[in-house]
């Protein structure tokens, strides 16, 4: 069980790092106004982003295997909270963050090299994206709280 738990935690750490790290970096790159840097950064992030779903799925599988090997109740309140947080994080990434990265990538490809287009500037400075990233950070902190303290159990 300890090996499964280690693998669950390690893969989830990797998944969070691969998903959140580039997002935070991209906000700074986008605000730089350097179109070439935006193109490069968002292009790399788009490629890295392909690893995010498999990492989270593998982490989920290791988590479920850990619960099974430990004889845990799959309907324990803290696990139900974790399932809900996983769903929220998945929807946030798939429906908001990933489309934003794809949109900025497309706008950067169309923008002149010397200065970002109006549309590109609007996309990389959109305060709604800052809010989405902050929500993502809060969801991750809620995961850590839930996994460590196992509330309502």
Which bin fits the share of residues in helices? over 70%
How large is the radius of gyration? 18 Å
Mean pLDDT: 95
Low-confidence stretches: none
Report the sheet with the most strands, covering strand number, pairing sense and barrel closure.
Answer: none
How many strand segments? 0
Report, as a whole number of angstroms, the end-to-end distance: 20 Å
State the shape: elongated
Number of domains: 1
Order of helices and strands: HHHHHH
Share of residues in strands:
under 5%
Tell me the number of helical segments per DSSP (H or I, 4 or more residues long): 6
Structural class: mainly alpha
Characterize the structure shown.
This protein is mainly α and 153 residues long. The protein has 6 helices and no strands. It is elongated. It has helices spanning 2-32, 35-49, 52-69, 77-110, 118-124, 127-149. It is 84% helix and 0% strand.
In short, what is this structure?
The protein has six helices and no strands. The chain is an all-alpha fold and 153 residues long.
């Amino acid at each position: 069980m300890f090996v499964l738990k280690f693998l669950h935690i390690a893969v989830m750490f990797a998944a969070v790092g691969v998903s959140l790290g580039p997002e935070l970096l991209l906000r700074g790159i986008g605000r730089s106004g350097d179109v070439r840097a935006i193109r490069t950064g968002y292009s790399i992030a788009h490629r890295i982003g392909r690893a995010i779903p498999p990492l989270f799925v593998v982490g989920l599988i290791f988590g479920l295997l850990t619960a099974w090997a430990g004889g845990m109740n799959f309907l324990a309140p803290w696990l139900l909270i974790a399932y809900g947080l996983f769903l929220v994080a998945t929807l946030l990434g798939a429906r908001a963050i990933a489309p934003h990265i794809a949109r900025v990538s497309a706008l950067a490809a169309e923008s002149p090299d010397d200065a970002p287009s109006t549309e590109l500037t609007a996309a990389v400075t959109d305060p709604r994206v800052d809010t989405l990233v902050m929500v993502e950070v809060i969801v991750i902190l809620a995961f850590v709280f839930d996994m460590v303290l196992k509330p309502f159990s």
